[in-house]
Structures are given as structure tokens and as C-alpha cells.
Amino acid sequence: MTSEARVRLPLSGQRIVLGVTGSISAYKAADLASKLRQAGAELEVVMTPAAVQFIAPLTFQSLTGRDVVVDMFSAREAEAHVEVARRADALVIAPATADCMANLATGRTPDMVTLTALATTAPVLIAPAMDNQMWAHPATQANVATLRERGAEFVGPNDGRLATGRMGAGRLAEPAEIVGALLRLLGLQRGDLRGRRVVVSAGPTHEPIDPVRFVGNRSSGKMGFAIAEAARDRGAEVTLVAGPVALAAPYGVRCISVKTVAEMLCALDEATRESDALVMAAAPADFRPATPADHKLKKEPGQQRMMLELTKNPDILASLPGGGVRVGFAAETQNLAQYARAKLTEKRLDFIVANDVTAAGSGFGTDTNQVTMFYAGGEVEELPLMTKYEVAHAIWDRVAERFGTNA
Ligand code: PMT
């Protein structure tokens, strides 16, 4: 059977309202607006008059293609002051000043941002930004506690250099973190994997030859990270065990960094004890140098060859007793179906996701992948070329079906 291709962005079909208040970090809200749009959101922006002192509404109008509401009395749309709130699937306030949070905590609505927050039933994500002493002040902390108690989610503020030149907690969370926090929040509200604990592996392993060299492979970790992010976006509690990769840890995912197969096995053994599903997208080395040197190996004068003796690594999937629904990958360059079916049985999997790593747009380092699923019952399902994030959702769709039948 062949499935239809479909474009799936993390925020496709979601109406997000971004509230911008008057902080020097308001300029970062333009990047955030752009990232929310790139993630597929239908975005509307509301601003306080103070925010307009820092960044022009035209910037957000250009980024969203929609009018930006600042003055609740001059809005073109009748009842705009509450309609924006009613349309929202989520409200993100970034940056949120101390004053904004004080108004939110006391239910005051002097501007469009606080008014939207009071008039919406949608989840609210707050990204504070201010001087570190303002953040630490008991009044601010009491307002944060009140808002948390009422169900608001917070992302940041981060530690670092502040506009005043001081170091401390008060920096606006990075736009990518805010998008991650929003996706997690929406997943926890209505994702089909809520309450499920899932474990994902990603990336290569580096098996040391000596302190400066290793045996590795071309895995970038993109496939595994996409699988972890998609699970988070569907509300799962995610543990990601990753080999050495150059990717930022996804927000809201518990990340464990490992280097070797031995470390990956140890981390996965621990993580899968209570898990509902394990998806093994990592590319662990099948062999490792038998006797890694404890000093840098030097070439002798005139030396033309060097022999490296390798010894077998444990098969992680085969060694792990459970993990819940078990999904493996098969990275092949030939005889894809034959090798994938053999691994499906040997590794006791519910299904295996096979990719031809020599095919254009597939395999190592790409943002897309074309995969074929082989199921324990014998069925085969070939999927079209999709983004790795879409492949990740296709995997979770099938894992969720199994949760449904096994529940
Ligand atoms: O990271 P990217 O750049 O995005 O690339 C993605 C990918 C090509 C790495 C990914 O799509 C993929 O195919 N991952 C599996 C790579 C691999 O090791 O395949 P394999 O056919 O050699 O192994 C079969 C399965 O056994 C895999 O689930 C693997 O994680 C697992 N395995 C392998 C060796 C080992 N010692 N222990 C294992 O558990």
C-alpha cells in the first residue's frame, strides 16, 4: 500500500496571538513572529503602546500580513478587543514586562495584550523579560506564582547579559525556545500522546581509537530529533538519547548525551524501564576499536600502513528487554526489504522504518526522508518523500494506533 503525501508543519492550522509589551527585547519578537509563521501558525499580533516605543507595528504587519491591534478603541473590526481573544488557539506574550504580569495577576486590562489575556480561554504562554532585580522582586515573583496557579505557562527568563549591562536572570528566552515551549504546551493540552512516556535515540556513536580519533558515521541526528520533537508536540514525555551531534536540544525534551554504544546502551536501558515506546533512529557503530590507546597514536618514520583491530559492539535493540512499542530503523544501501525484515525479527520490533541511505533526499544529513515501514504482521507500507518531521509523525501515528489497541 502507498500513503498520500501531506505537508505538516508543527503549527499548521493553529491560530496564535502574539502579545508584545514594552521591553527593549521587543525587537526579538519580530524573529519570534517570523518563526511562528514558518512553523505554520496563523498569526495575529497585539501590542501595548509601550511596545510601539521599541518596535513599529508595521514590522509585525509585514511579517503576518494582518493588521496589528494596538489601540483597542480604534480597531477596525467591531468588538476587535475580544474577537482576537476568542479566535486564539493560544496566546503568547513575549516579551512580557513586570508591569504586564502585574496587570495580568490583578485582572487589569489597560491595553490590548492584557485585555486579550483576560478575554481568552486559550492556553497562555508568558516569556518575561526585564532587569534581574525586577524579576527577583517579591512582587514580581508573587505575580508569577499567581499566574502559574491559574494555569499560565512560563518560558524563561534566561540567565545572561541584560540590557543594563548586568548579568543575571531576566533575558527573554530565545525565539526557538518560545516556539518549542508553545508546541509543548499545545501538545499537553490536546495531543494524542499525552501521558505517554517515550524514548528516542538519535545520531551516531563515536568509538575511540585514541584520545583524538574515533570510528563514527554520517548520522546528523536530524531524524531522531524530529521524532523527539513530534512526540513532544503530541504531548508525550520524551527522553532523547543522542550521540555526538551539532543540534540544539529541543525545548521540553529530556536530553541525555552519550558518545559510545556502551554509553547509549546504558542510558537506554535506564530510560526504557518505564517507557511506553522506544524509537531507535540512532546509528550506533556495529564495531569499535578493540584496544583504544590512552595516548595519541604517532606515525613512525616511513610507516605506510596501520592495522586497526575492531571488536563487535552489543546490539542495543536486541539487548533491551522491553521499552513498550518497539520501533527500529534499517539504514540500507541494497536489498532493503530483505535486510529490513531480518532486523524486524532479530530485534523483536513492532515495526521497522527502512530507508535507502543512497537515495536522493534520504538518509544521512538530509531534511527529508523516504521510508518504507515493515510490520511484524507482514504488511509493508511505502511512504512518499517527506520532511523528517512528517516521517516522525507518520511513525507516531502508527505507534498511537498500537497504544489504542494495546490500551
Ligand atoms: O541522523 P540523520 O542524519 O538524520 O540520518 C538518519 C538515519 C539514516 C541515521 C536514520 O534514518 C536511520 O536509518 N537510523 C538507523 C541507522 C542504523 O544504525 O541502522 P542499522 O540498519 O545499522 O541498524 C538497525 C537498527 O538497530 C537501528 O534501529 C539501530 O538504531 C539499531 N542498532 C544498530 C546497531 C547497534 N549496535 N545497536 C542497535 O540497536
Summarize the structure.
The protein is built from 14 helices and 21 strands. It has helices at residues 28-38, 49-52, 57-64, 80-87, 98-106, 112-119, 132-136, 138-149, 175-190, 222-233, 261-271, 316-319, 336-346, 388-406; strands at 15-20, 42-47, 90-96, 124-128, 153-154, 158-161, 167-171, 197-202, 207-210, 213-215, 237-242, 254-257, 277-280, 287-289, 310-312, 325-332, 351-356, 368-369, 371-375, 380-382, 386-387. An 8-stranded mixed sheet has the order 12-11-8-13-16-17-19-20, sandwiched between helices. Strands 2-1-3-4-5 form a 5-stranded parallel sheet, sandwiched between helices.
Question: Could you name the key traits of this structure?
Answer:
407 residues; elongated; 5-stranded parallel β-sheet; Rossmann fold; binds ligand PMT; 23% strand; 8-stranded mixed β-sheet; 21 strands; disordered N terminus
Q: Can you lay out the helices and strands and say which pair or pack?
A:
Elements: E1 15-20, H1 28-38, E2 42-47, H2 49-52, H3 57-64, H4 80-87, E3 90-96, H5 98-106, H6 112-119, E4 124-128, H7 132-136, H8 138-149, E5 153-154, E6 158-161, E7 167-171, H9 175-190, E8 197-202, E9 207-210, E10 213-215, H10 222-233, E11 237-242, E12 254-257, H11 261-271, E13 277-280, E14 287-289, E15 310-312, H12 316-319, E16 325-332, H13 336-346, E17 351-356, E18 368-369, E19 371-375, E20 380-382, E21 386-387, H14 388-406
Parallel strand pairs: 1-2, 1-3, 3-4, 4-5, 8-11, 8-13, 11-12, 13-16, 16-17
Antiparallel strand pairs: 6-7, 9-10, 14-15, 17-19, 18-21, 19-20
Helix pairs in contact: 1-3, 1-9, 4-6, 5-8, 10-14
